[in-house]
Amino acid sequence: MRFSxxxxxxxxxxxxxxAAPAGGPKxxxxxxxxxxxxxxxxIDGQATEWTDSLQYDANSKLQYLVLxxxxxxxxxxxxxxxxxxxxxxxxGTVVWxxxxxxxxxxxxxxxPLPVDLExxxxxxxxxxxxxxxxxxxxxxxxxxxxxxxxxxxxxMELLNFRGSKEPVLADAQSLLGVKAAINLDAQGxxxxxxxxxxxxxxxxxxxxxxxxAATVGVTLAGMKPKMPKSDSSSDPYSSMNxxxxxxxxxxxxxxxMRGGPQYTFSTFNLRTSAQLAGQAGQ
Length: 282
Description:
There is one protein chain. By secondary structure, the chain is mainly beta. It has one domain (5-275). It has helices at 82-91, 135-150; strands at residues 30-33, 35-36, 55-57, 62-68, 72-79, 93-98, 107-110, 155-159, 168-171, 179-184, 190-197, 215-222, 254-255, 261-262, 269-275. Strands 1-15-12-6-7-8-9 form a seven-stranded mixed sheet. Strands 2, 3, 4, 5, 10 and 11 form a six-stranded mixed sheet that branches. The chain has a two-stranded antiparallel sheet with strand order 13-14. Helix 1 (82-91) runs parallel beside helix 2 (135-150). The radius of gyration is 20 Å and the shape is elongated. Mean pLDDT is 80; it is low at 1-9, 13-29 and 230-262.
C-alpha cells in the first residue's frame, strides 16, 4: 500500500492523534455469549435483519455481536465514529479467530483490504486564507469517499488458511464458505458482516445441539499506514492555509520542537471471546 502525506487530510481530524490513545489502560479481553440463529443470516452489509442488541467496546469504538448456528459463526460490526470508519475501510481490518477463546490468531480474515491511498479522490482546493469546509461539508465528503471505496470491496485474504504461510486471496462471497460484506447505511453507520464455517475454526466441529461447550476467540485489528518521515517535504500542510491545519482539521497532529512534522497514529483493536450457543435461549 503506497503512502502519500496528502491522505492525512482525507481522514477526520481525530483519526490522527498527537498523544497516546484515549481510553486508559488496556483491559483484559471480555467474554460474551453468542446469539443462536435458527436461519442463516444474509451477509450483504445491510443491517435490516439485525434485531439483537450489540455490544459496545469504548476503547475501539466498535459495536459488535457474535452469532452462530450449528455450522457457522457470524460477526456483526457497526461503526458510527467517522475516524474509526476511515481507518476500518481505507487501511484494512483483520478479524482473527481461534478455537481456544484465548485470541491465538489461528485463522484470519482480512476484509476490507487496504486501498491505495493515492487513488482516493482529493478534496476541493481552496485558496490561501479561505475558510475551510464546514462540519457538514466534511461529513458529506467523508461519506461520498467512503461509499466509493466500499463499492470495490469485493475480495478478502484468508490468513493461516489450512496452514498456508501466504495469504489466500478469495472472493468476499467465497465458495469456501467464508463470506464478508461491508456497506454504509442511510444513517451513516459503517456495517460489516462476516460468516465463517465452524469447520475452519475447529478440528472437530462441536456438537452444540447436544450441549457441548465451545468458545471462539475474536480479535478485530486495524492496520497501520507507513507514516511519513519528519521532513518539510512530507508536510501535508505546506499547501494548506500557509502550513496551518486548514479545513477544520486542527488538533489532529502537529509539528515538533524543531519545526518538522511529527505524526503518531492510533488504530483500533478489539479482543473478546464468545461462548457459542446450542439453541435459542442458551
